[in-house]
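Sequence in, structure out.
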Amino acid sequence: MKVLLAAIAIALSPALALAQQAPPAKKAPAPGANKKLAPAAQKAVEENTPIDADPNVKLTDADLEVAKRVFVGDIPCELGAKVTVTPLKREGFFLVTTKGHRFAMHPVESRTGAIRLEDPKRGAMWLQLGNKSMLMSQKLGQRLADECQSPEQVTFAEKLKANPVNILEAPKQPDPITMPPAAPASKPASS
Protein backbone atom coordinates (compact mmCIF):
# COMPACT_ATOMS: atom_id res chain seq x y z
CA MET A 1 0.00 0.00 0.00
CA LYS A 2 2.86 2.37 0.85
CA VAL A 3 4.47 1.63 -2.47
CA LEU A 4 1.22 2.36 -4.32
CA LEU A 5 0.77 5.71 -2.54
CA ALA A 6 4.38 6.65 -3.23
CA ALA A 7 3.97 5.80 -6.95
CA ILE A 8 0.81 7.95 -7.20
CA ALA A 9 2.51 10.88 -5.42
CA ILE A 10 5.50 10.68 -7.77
CA ALA A 11 3.24 10.52 -10.82
CA LEU A 12 1.16 13.54 -9.70
CA SER A 13 4.03 15.74 -8.51
CA PRO A 14 4.76 17.36 -11.93
CA ALA A 15 1.07 18.24 -12.34
CA LEU A 16 0.92 19.75 -8.84
CA ALA A 17 4.07 21.79 -9.52
CA LEU A 18 2.63 23.17 -12.77
CA ALA A 19 -0.66 24.04 -11.07
CA GLN A 20 1.18 26.12 -8.47
CA GLN A 21 3.19 28.06 -11.08
CA ALA A 22 0.46 28.85 -13.61
CA PRO A 23 -1.00 32.37 -13.24
CA PRO A 24 -4.74 32.60 -12.87
CA ALA A 25 -6.60 33.15 -16.12
CA LYS A 26 -7.73 36.77 -16.67
CA LYS A 27 -11.35 37.40 -17.42
CA ALA A 28 -12.21 39.52 -20.43
CA PRO A 29 -13.91 42.80 -19.43
CA ALA A 30 -17.62 42.81 -19.92
CA PRO A 31 -18.85 45.05 -22.74
CA GLY A 32 -19.75 48.50 -21.41
CA ALA A 33 -17.65 48.06 -18.27
CA ASN A 34 -16.28 51.27 -16.75
CA LYS A 35 -12.93 52.07 -18.29
CA LYS A 36 -10.79 55.14 -17.71
CA LEU A 37 -11.10 57.47 -20.67
CA ALA A 38 -8.13 58.79 -22.56
CA PRO A 39 -7.30 62.45 -21.75
CA ALA A 40 -8.62 63.65 -25.14
CA ALA A 41 -11.90 61.79 -24.57
CA GLN A 42 -12.20 63.20 -21.03
CA LYS A 43 -11.73 66.72 -22.41
CA ALA A 44 -14.38 66.15 -25.09
CA VAL A 45 -16.87 64.87 -22.51
CA GLU A 46 -16.14 67.82 -20.19
CA GLU A 47 -16.52 70.38 -22.97
CA ASN A 48 -19.82 68.92 -24.15
CA THR A 49 -21.41 68.41 -20.73
CA PRO A 50 -23.71 71.34 -20.02
CA ILE A 51 -23.13 73.32 -16.85
CA ASP A 52 -26.21 74.82 -15.29
CA ALA A 53 -26.34 77.66 -12.82
CA ASP A 54 -27.49 76.42 -9.40
CA PRO A 55 -31.26 77.08 -9.27
CA ASN A 56 -31.06 77.36 -5.45
CA VAL A 57 -28.85 80.47 -5.64
CA LYS A 58 -30.89 83.67 -5.42
CA LEU A 59 -29.01 86.79 -6.47
CA THR A 60 -29.78 90.13 -4.81
CA ASP A 61 -29.96 93.45 -6.63
CA ALA A 62 -26.49 94.22 -5.26
CA ASP A 63 -25.17 90.92 -6.72
CA LEU A 64 -26.66 91.81 -10.12
CA GLU A 65 -24.96 95.23 -9.97
CA VAL A 66 -21.62 93.52 -9.24
CA ALA A 67 -22.22 91.15 -12.18
CA LYS A 68 -22.41 94.17 -14.52
CA ARG A 69 -18.78 95.00 -13.64
CA VAL A 70 -17.35 91.54 -14.44
CA PHE A 71 -14.91 91.60 -17.34
CA VAL A 72 -15.95 89.10 -20.02
CA GLY A 73 -14.13 87.53 -22.95
CA ASP A 74 -10.72 85.89 -23.30
CA ILE A 75 -8.42 87.14 -20.56
CA PRO A 76 -4.70 86.33 -20.96
CA CYS A 77 -2.80 85.24 -17.85
CA GLU A 78 0.80 84.57 -16.87
CA LEU A 79 2.73 81.63 -18.34
CA GLY A 80 0.60 81.64 -21.51
CA ALA A 81 -2.58 80.61 -19.71
CA LYS A 82 -5.98 82.04 -20.61
CA VAL A 83 -9.32 82.32 -18.82
CA THR A 84 -12.57 82.85 -20.72
CA VAL A 85 -15.49 84.50 -18.91
CA THR A 86 -18.85 84.28 -20.70
CA PRO A 87 -22.26 85.37 -19.40
CA LEU A 88 -24.78 82.53 -19.07
CA LYS A 89 -28.46 82.79 -19.99
CA ARG A 90 -29.41 83.32 -16.35
CA GLU A 91 -28.66 86.92 -15.41
CA GLY A 92 -25.68 87.37 -13.08
CA PHE A 93 -24.14 83.95 -13.82
CA PHE A 94 -20.97 83.34 -15.81
CA LEU A 95 -19.20 80.38 -17.40
CA VAL A 96 -15.52 80.63 -16.42
CA THR A 97 -13.21 78.27 -18.29
CA THR A 98 -9.51 77.58 -18.40
CA LYS A 99 -7.42 74.62 -19.52
CA GLY A 100 -9.31 71.53 -18.30
CA HIS A 101 -11.71 73.38 -15.97
CA ARG A 102 -15.24 74.84 -16.35
CA PHE A 103 -17.23 76.61 -13.67
CA ALA A 104 -20.70 78.19 -13.46
CA MET A 105 -20.05 81.18 -11.22
CA HIS A 106 -22.10 83.91 -9.60
CA PRO A 107 -21.21 87.06 -7.61
CA VAL A 108 -20.62 86.73 -3.87
CA GLU A 109 -20.38 89.67 -1.47
CA SER A 110 -16.81 90.77 -0.78
CA ARG A 111 -15.81 92.88 2.23
CA THR A 112 -12.91 94.40 0.29
CA GLY A 113 -14.95 95.61 -2.67
CA ALA A 114 -13.21 93.21 -5.07
CA ILE A 115 -15.42 91.39 -7.55
CA ARG A 116 -15.69 87.79 -6.42
CA LEU A 117 -17.39 85.02 -8.38
CA GLU A 118 -17.83 81.54 -6.93
CA ASP A 119 -18.88 78.07 -7.97
CA PRO A 120 -19.53 76.39 -4.60
CA LYS A 121 -20.39 73.00 -6.18
CA ARG A 122 -17.01 72.70 -7.89
CA GLY A 123 -15.07 74.67 -5.27
CA ALA A 124 -13.70 77.51 -7.40
CA MET A 125 -13.40 81.28 -7.10
CA TRP A 126 -12.65 84.06 -9.62
CA LEU A 127 -11.27 87.18 -7.96
CA GLN A 128 -11.24 90.34 -10.06
CA LEU A 129 -9.27 93.33 -8.80
CA GLY A 130 -8.67 96.63 -10.56
CA ASN A 131 -5.33 95.59 -12.01
CA LYS A 132 -5.52 91.79 -12.27
CA SER A 133 -7.67 88.70 -11.75
CA MET A 134 -7.02 85.14 -10.60
CA LEU A 135 -8.84 81.80 -10.69
CA MET A 136 -8.47 79.61 -7.61
CA SER A 137 -9.51 76.06 -6.82
CA GLN A 138 -10.57 75.85 -3.22
CA LYS A 139 -10.76 72.03 -3.50
CA LEU A 140 -7.18 71.74 -4.76
CA GLY A 141 -5.93 74.63 -2.63
CA GLN A 142 -4.11 76.28 -5.53
CA ARG A 143 -4.40 78.95 -8.20
CA LEU A 144 -5.45 77.66 -11.59
CA ALA A 145 -4.60 80.96 -13.31
CA ASP A 146 -2.86 84.07 -11.99
CA GLU A 147 -1.95 87.55 -13.22
CA CYS A 148 -4.89 87.56 -15.63
CA GLN A 149 -5.54 90.97 -17.19
CA SER A 150 -8.33 92.23 -19.40
CA PRO A 151 -7.50 95.32 -21.52
CA GLU A 152 -9.24 97.49 -18.90
CA GLN A 153 -7.10 95.98 -16.14
CA VAL A 154 -3.90 96.58 -18.12
CA THR A 155 -4.85 100.26 -18.46
CA PHE A 156 -5.72 100.47 -14.76
CA ALA A 157 -2.40 98.83 -13.78
CA GLU A 158 -0.49 101.38 -15.89
CA LYS A 159 -2.36 104.23 -14.15
CA LEU A 160 -1.45 102.74 -10.76
CA LYS A 161 2.22 102.59 -11.73
CA ALA A 162 2.13 106.23 -12.81
CA ASN A 163 0.17 107.35 -9.71
CA PRO A 164 0.83 104.91 -6.85
CA VAL A 165 -1.79 104.87 -4.10
CA ASN A 166 -0.97 104.25 -0.45
CA ILE A 167 -3.92 102.23 0.78
CA LEU A 168 -2.93 102.87 4.41
CA GLU A 169 -3.53 106.62 4.12
CA ALA A 170 -6.96 108.22 4.05
CA PRO A 171 -7.87 109.44 0.56
CA LYS A 172 -7.13 113.14 0.02
CA GLN A 173 -9.85 113.45 -2.59
CA PRO A 174 -13.48 112.52 -2.08
CA ASP A 175 -13.33 110.27 -5.17
CA PRO A 176 -10.39 107.79 -4.79
CA ILE A 177 -9.19 105.63 -7.63
CA THR A 178 -11.80 102.98 -8.18
CA MET A 179 -12.04 99.95 -10.37
CA PRO A 180 -12.81 100.87 -13.99
CA PRO A 181 -16.25 99.94 -15.33
CA ALA A 182 -16.43 96.64 -17.18
CA ALA A 183 -17.11 96.45 -20.87
CA PRO A 184 -20.73 95.61 -21.79
CA ALA A 185 -21.47 91.90 -21.57
CA SER A 186 -21.45 90.02 -24.84
CA LYS A 187 -24.13 87.56 -25.89
CA PRO A 188 -24.93 84.87 -23.29
CA ALA A 189 -23.52 81.39 -23.64
CA SER A 190 -25.85 78.43 -23.64
CA SER A 191 -25.93 76.64 -20.33
